[in-house]
Amino acid sequence: MGVEGCTKCVKYLLFFFNFIFWLTGGVILGVALWLRQDPKTSTLLGIEYEGHQAPNTFYISVHILIAVGAVMMVVGFLGCYGAIQESQCLLGTFFACLVILFACEVAAGIWGYLNKETVSSEMINFYDSIYNQARQPDFAGADEQKKAALATVLKVFHETLQCCGKGGADQLYTLFTQVSGTSDVCPSSFTAINCHARIRELFSDKIYLIGIIALVIAMIMIFEMIFSMVLCCGIRNSPVY
After folding, report:
1. Cβ-count burial of 48 within 10 angstroms (0-12 exposed, 13-18 middle, 19+ buried)?
2. Where would I find the H helices in the chain?
3. Same domain, 10 and 79
């Protein structure tokens, strides 16, 4: 015989939450892989100009999510099996893993909150550095290979995000050169939206998605830690053991 009464109810609640935890790990892994392979972010973060690679801070968060999703699936299975088998050893190991994961998640959440604007700012600075080179007076006399490389990088930004220019006074200059035929780096479907706004929109939306996922995980983990300890105490105090 196993545990009885309320403890038995806790056992099945723990199994249920662990199953949800395991499924959540699978969803996180899938979402993280989607973020890693998303055409827009992959195109922008894969840009390289004169040996300078686009900032990859965003990928750090994505790779952490991939690791978290994989670990959650393993820990979720461990919790499910430990709950059904009523094993104090497995439940204790499961609890320890949850505490470590929870601590890592809190640390990652604090880091993410403090650096939530970093991803957008780094990409905007990278775009501005390329855009400003194209605005320099001596650029017209640059060799054709450099001009072609610079135009290609700008066009990747503009076509991917369906934007053109930095905004403000620079936006008017960009639109004027495009209309007058002086440059040909704006999207084929002409747009007046500046790239700063598009970059913030692209990465901010994804950062918020990561934050929502982290919040859901934290709530599930708190319930699981409580239930695992209650079940451990119930198994220890059960008269059948």
Report:
1. exposed
2. 6-37, 39-45, 57-85, 88-114, 118-135, 144-161, 168-180, 195-237
3. yes
Contact call for residues 190 and 178 (beta carbons, < 8 A)? yes
Q: Note whether 109 and 155 are same-domain residues.
A: no
Which range marks the domain in which residue 159 is found?
A: 120-196
Confidence (pTM):
0.62
**Which range (72-76, 112-116, 117-121, 219-223) has the least confidence?**
112-116
Cβ distance 237 to 10 under 8 Å? no
CA pair distance 123, 49, nearest whole angstrom:
13
The count of structural domains within the chain is: 2
Q: Which amino acid is residue 99, in one-letter code? A: V
Q: Is 81 inside a domain boundary?
A: yes
Asked if the model's pLDDT at residue 181 lies above 60, the reply is no
Considering the domain boundaries, does residue 1 fall inside one?
A: no
- Please list, in sequence order, all residues whose beta carbon lies within 8 angstroms of the beta carbon of residue 217, skipping any fewer than 6 positions away: 24, 28, 68, 72, 105
- 190 and 231 housed in the same domain: no
Residues 225 and 181 in one domain: no
Q: Do the Cβ atoms of 3 and 86 come closer than 8 Å?
A: yes
Specify the DSSP element, H or E, that contains 53: strand 52-53
- Whether residue 188 is contained in a domain is answered as yes
Cβ–Cβ under 8 Å, residues 26 and 101: no
Residue 112 and residue 189 share a domain: no
